[in-house]
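F.,

This is the one I mentioned.
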């Protein structure tokens, strides 16, 4: 996938999501997050939203994102995380979640991961908080930023089979996996 479109809009990305509805969603998601103690893998960390809504020790954190521009925005805002982010594609080849206590992927980020990567995450012993796009949802990011990326839809049935029915819930346009 080509993420250079995100690089082009990275400098204004945060301003696109400072409207009241986005801020309310961020607060609500922050309240849904489980306690994050121990090491954290933030998949699709973008400009650092997780570090805004949860207090995270930079030494316990690793963020990955395929957009260099988004990561530059992140580290400009939060210099303490400069050595704690990695620019890498969402291909699942180098995604090793076995060494983390927590795996977080907010606002659709896991929808860009391959089935192989989702299967690997489902088998990790880490606590997981993953927000998948619901089927047929067209991400608002695409509309606000005039970008379009290929992503995968994981049905509620598939997510329940991988993570357990009791660990999958719905929130607005997302299916949330919240489990150990």
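My design for it:
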């Amino acid at each position: 996938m080509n993420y250079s479109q995100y690089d082009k809009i990275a400098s204004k990305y945060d301003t696109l999501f400072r409207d009241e509805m986005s801020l309310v969603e961020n607060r609500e998601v922050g309240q849904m997050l489980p306690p994050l103690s121990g090491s954290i893998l933030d998949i699709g960390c973008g400009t650092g939203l997780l570090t805004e809504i949860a207090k995270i020790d930079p030494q316990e954190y690793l963020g990955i994102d395929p957009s260099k521009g988004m990561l530059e925005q992140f580290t400009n805002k939060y210099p303490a995380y400069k050595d704690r982010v990695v620019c890498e594609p969402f291909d699942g080849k180098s995604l090793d979640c076995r060494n983390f206590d927590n795996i977080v992927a907010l606002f659709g980020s896991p929808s860009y991961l391959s089935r192989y990567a989702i299967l690997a995450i489902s088998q990790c012993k880490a606590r997981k908080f993953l927000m998948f796009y619901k089927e047929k949802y067209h991400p608002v990011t695409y509309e606000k930023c005039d970008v379009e990326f290929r992503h995968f839809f994981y049905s509620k049935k598939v997510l329940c089979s991988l993570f357990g029915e009791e660990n999958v819930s719905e929130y607005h346009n997302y299916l949330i996996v919240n489990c150990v």
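The helical segments are 4-13, 20-32, 49-53, 68-77, 115-123, 140-145, 156-163.

Talk soon.
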